[in-house]
Every structure is written in structure tokens, then in C-alpha cells.
Amino acid sequence: MLHYKIVSKDKQLPWLLCIHGAGGNINTWKFQIPDLSNSFQLVLVDLRDHGGSVHEKELHQAYSFDLVAGDVLKVIDHLHIQELSIMSLSMGSMIAQKLAMLRPGLVKSAVYAGGVFHVTLAIHLFAHTAWILTKFIPYRRMYQMFSWLVMPLSNHQLARRLYMRQSALLTQSAYNRWIRLYGEFKKTLRRFFNSDIEIPSLVIMG
Predict the structure, then answer these.
(1) Predicted pLDDT of residue 72
(2) Distance between CA atoms of 126 and 129, rounded to whole angstroms?
(3) In this predicted structure, which of 1-10, 77-86, 196-205 has the lowest mean pLDDT?
(4) d(Cα 87, Cα 93) in Å, to the nearest integer?
(5) Per-residue pLDDT for 98 more than 70?
(6) Longest Cα–Cα distance in the chain
(7) Beta strand pairing status for 84-89 and 107-113?
(8) CA 133 vs CA 6, 19, 100, 149, 174: distances in Å
(9) How far apart are CA 173 and CA 91, in angstroms?
């Protein structure tokens, strides 16, 4: 089972599931936890190969978004949660959308921060380039380049530093397993893009 953390000040509060992006971990939400925990019971998960979640017995298993979302569902079922909202970041938005598809009625609302929803030419070129460069450039350098690409300003310095600190915990082999999702990445996004959004959703970009 994935490594997870519960933050609950009041058992009567609704549940909020927090899903980090690729290279992140539970600490992605360290600055949001104090405020969010005033209104929700929080479930923070480390996705497989991230943070405290290491699946050594499944290292050679082909990854899919069904598999990754299934990991999260096991935690939700373990905690006997029947309904929740989701806060997701970057690629975590794809997992959030997958959860809503796999378990209708589970997700009652969602926030997608820096969400990925459509295969634009820019996303296609970036993902394809990353797939090629990973054969020649260490993944830590890839994350460094990506952090400057999406957070280039001086006021992004803290965010870049936190992102690089978290991604450093990912191993090269784990990065290679995740990058192989590239093939399914396009197909999954097209399916999401052509599906109706049936829950209240907030998209935060920029």
C-alpha cells in the first residue's frame, strides 16, 4: 500500500485527498496543510516510487494510469472513505480524473492546480523530447531543466528549490518507469478531454 498521512482536527469534517505531481511527495503540500486542515480531514499520499512509497516487488511491472490510480483507491478503501474532494497538482490531475472515472460517486469536487487536460503541440513536443533526452541526460538534470521552464521567475525560487529537493528522492530507475507512461499519456488525455466534467471543478493555472 502507498505511504500516506492523515491530518484530522475534526472527525466531522469532509475528506480532501491531496495528489502531488511527478517527482513530488507529501511535502508538496506542507504550506497548504495548516489552512486546508481547518476545513477538511486530509489524506496525503505518496505515489508509487515517490516519498515513502516504494514497490520493490513491482519494479518490472508495466505502469499504467489504471495501476497508479488503483494504488490510491486501495488507500481510500483501507480508510473506508465513501466520498471526498481532491486537490491535485500537475500530473496528479490526470490521476484525479482517472479516480473519478474508475469510481463514479467517489469524487464530489476537484481542484486541479497546473492541471494537464489536453495534448497540445507544446505538451506533445515536451513529452516526446523528455522521452528521448532521458536516454542521454540524468533525470535530475531533466527535472532541473523542467523546473526552470515552468517556474522561471525570481519569485519562483523557493518553489524551484522545494521541487528539486523532492525530485532528488526519486531514483533513475523509478523515473524511467514513469517516463514509459508517455505512450498511454496521450491516449488518456484524449479520453479525458472528450469526456464531460460531472463534478464541480476548479482549474488553477499560471
Answers:
(1) 97
(2) 5
(3) 196-205
(4) 8
(5) yes
(6) 51
(7) parallel
(8) 37, 27, 33, 15, 16
(9) 19
